[in-house]
């Protein structure tokens, strides 16, 4: 080591001196101005040593020297050393150049190769000399050790404070740290109501995406911080899925104080250590976990239930129940195979696709034969009937609860709208005060403030109209009589407005799992239902034979065909069935061809005109035989002159041919000029026959 007064070789002085300036964090750059000034004053030290060419490298201000981040200024210094342009490197102390041994010793090795000096406030060091190199190595080790000590003390203090629940960690939206009372709920009531509404709708709908869709349909907005991490001012925007999921998964809303939920990981990239943060750890590995630390929006039990439901919705892993997501299969994700234990898949087959439950996993994964498969319509109807029978005693309570939930939902929407109106009115009053405080002559600012005031007033009017519309809708819309559900659960289950998703959620609320098997000998499907609460029951459903389907013609329609066939054509039968409102097995209207197909399948002999013996006639046949109109024949039937038979109201008339030859019919047809009525026996006619 050589003192300040010692002269440097001329070969060294002809090269340039580099002043390396660095501070570790942006806060130090803004606050520690004295350290920054002292580093820049090293220019005078370099000139006192005789350097005329002095360069300052300050590209690393606000960057750590631990080796975990890139330092373009240090890389520039190393490049200049390799080029042989540097005679001396000046720094305030060794910690400014590097706080890790790799960078420090690499710098010393380069300085020794090009005969460059290292200068600080203590003296001038020649890395080519063993004593100076030893001293520089000790300074680098002390700098690295010092960083470790500082970091260890800082982390230990933070952990100690966190174990007491006093460390002011960043809080999610809905909480604030107060200087006097500590951690508490955000005083903004509108913000609190929105967060509570997310939990209430998830409790009701059971799906984060359904919560998002409902809130978006109701035009409910969500707060976004407009000032970074301070969380003191918010901008209300349409809600997103990540907002819903972040609220549901954060244990902070359940009153839990947690510290050490994530960890950092270090990897070597391009020869440098790179640290990445935010890698989540399992709950059991968290460093601090304090329940009931602060007031929560939900309880810890509800939080655990929400996590279980979210996991089942997202993955459907072994032991979980897949959430009800609609479709046409009631038991999708709920029914399992009794032979291999796997869940049955749902496939849709047929000309008119219907759900089929099938155990496909052995075939897809192992190439083995499928365990079994069966149609889903009968199974779904059987399970639905069994479930409705089980819940019938609780129907009245369920109806009352549904009515309460419907009423609370309307109140929540109106309350959110009222809070939004209050916020809009405050923003409008604030914009008015700003405009009033502005100098009218400064038109550049006054015009912008006036525009902001006008926009705030328009928002107030829009919020007021929305709130009035809600009040009018609640006043005009009659509350449905949900108590009627107790009398007719089946009608409510089969109602057109009852979606399959609603039915699936109801099934999952009562049934844990269904184990299915096929009894080939008896030709039955065996279902073992595991109810919530530990009860079990077994059902047996007849398995359809090969070729049998569920589109069967109703027995009432078959009875009409058997009564009318043989005397009426297929066209007459089809028209009669349509008038009586009896559809086909597929829900379609009747045609002559469909009637004929059903007759042939069930062995019903059809109408053949050549086989008719003339004993029975239709209205048309009777009118033709009597040479009168259909209207006259109908009047004769109505007057009771001859009788007409009908299988049921709306079916064609059947008139016996022998009745048309009676004297009453002949006399009624001969009368002219007055209605064809039968003269009562004891009534004198007002008109003569002449």
Task: Describe it.
The protein has about 700 residues and is an alpha+beta fold. It has five domains: about 10-160, 3-Layer(aba) Sandwich (Rossmann fold), CATH 3.40.50; about 175-255 and about 290-315, Putative Large Serine Recombinase, Chain B, Domain 2 (Hect, E3 ligase catalytic domain fold); about 330-550, no CATH class; about 555-610, no CATH class; about 615-670, Multidrug-efflux Transporter Regulator, Chain: A, Domain 2, CATH 1.10.1660. About 45% of the residues lie in helices and about 15% in strands. The chain contains 24 helices and 22 strands. The protein has a five-stranded mixed sheet with strand order 2-1-3-4-5, sandwiched between helices. It has a four-stranded mixed sheet with strand order 14-18-19-20. Strand 11 (about 260-270) and strand 12 (about 270-280) form a beta hairpin. Helix 15 (about 395-435) runs antiparallel to helix 16 and helix 20 (about 570-580) packs across helix 21. The longest helix has about 45 residues, at about 395-435. The protein is elongated. The relative contact order is 0.05. Mean pLDDT is about 80; it is low at about 1-5.
